[in-house]
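Quick one:
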Amino acid sequence: MAYIPILAERLKIAYTLPIFLVGVVFYYLGVPIPWQAAMWEHGTVVVVTEVIVIISLMGAGLKIGLRYSFGHWRNPLRLIHTSMPLYMLVIFGIALFILQIDVASSILLAAVCAPTDPVLASDLELDEDELETNKNTGMRYLLTAEAGINDGLAFPFVFLAILWSKTMGHESVDLIHWLTFHMGYKIIVGVLIGGVLGYLYSLSIKKATHPQMTKVLSGFVGVALAFLAFALAEMAHGYGFLATFFAGLFAQYHKHTKGTSHVKDEIFVFNKELEKFLIVLWTAVFGGFLVSGILQMATLLHWGVALFLIMVLRPVTGRIGLTGTNFTEKKKWAIGFFGIKGVGSFFYLAYALKNGNFTDEGQLYVMVTLLVALSIVVHGASGPRVVAYFKRNNPG
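Output:
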C-alpha cells in the first residue's frame, strides 16, 4: 500500500492496476485465500463493498468542500440528468435484444453499470492542493462530483429491477409508488440527513476554539460521521450513500462561511489513507477472483459488449451531456471517457441478487466482472496521463 502508489505515480498509471495484477499473481501462486470459482456469496459482497463505498463517498465529499452554489453543480448534474439516462437506456436495449436476458435483469444491468465508481475513480478525483484554484470546475471536479451523487439516479432503477423480478411484468409493478418513494422520497431524505449532519459537525468545529479539541473532532470521527449519516438515512428509508456524500460535503461548511481555505486536515488525511487501504485489499482479491473461474463463463459476445460500453458508449453519452459547456472538445471527450466502474457496481449487483428473483445471475456477474476488469486496465493505464496532460496544456 505504501510503495506501489509511489511506483504507479512515477509510471503515470493508477495504483489499482499493479495491485490488480498482484491479486492475479497471488491466485496462481496458491496463496490460501478462499477464492470464489464464479460468484461470491451475495450477503458478504453487500457488506464488504458497502463499507468501502461509504468511506470513499465521505472522501469525495471532503475533497470537493466549499462548493455550494448551483453554478458549481450545473456541469456535474449534466452527467447525471442527461448522460446517465442515455447510457442506461442503451445498455437496457443491448441486454434485452443482444444478450437476450429478461426485462428485470436488463434493467438491473443498466442500473449497475451506470454509476461512475467513487472508489476506483479516487485516483482521478480532486487533490487537496487544487481546491483553491479554478481547477475546481474542471475535469477532476466533475468526476468527483459525479461519482458522489450518481447513485441518486442509479439506485432507484436497482429497486425497479428488484420489484420487476418479483412480478410477472410491468402491470404488477406500482410505478407511481416507485416514482414517489424510490425516485423522490429516498433521494430527498438522503440529501437532507447527510447535509444536516455534516452542517452540525461543521458547527461543532466552528465552536471548538481549543486546538486540541479541533484535532480530536477532525480525526477518526470522520469515519464515524460517514457511518452515522449512512445509518440514519437508511433508518429513515433514504439513500445512505447520498447521505454519506453530503455529510462529507457539508462537513467543510464552517470554512466556507469564514472564508477559510480548504486545508489538508486530519479528517481528510485519515479518510484518504483508510480508503486507499480498503481499495488495495479489494482490488487484490478481485484480481484473483477474475482468474479463478468466472472468465470461463465469458463469451466473445460478453467481451465485445463490455468493450463497447467502456470505449464507445460512455464517451459518447458523456460528450452529449457536456454539450453547451465551455470545456474544450478534447476535455469533453476525456470527461466522458472516464466513467470508471468498480466496487459500487458489485454492491448494486449483489444487493439486487440478494433481494430479488433474477434468472440471469450468471450473465449479470460475467458482464459486471468484465466491465470492472476492463475499467481497471483501460482507465488505470490512461487516467493519470490524461489528467497530467490537461494540467500542462489546459488547466482545469
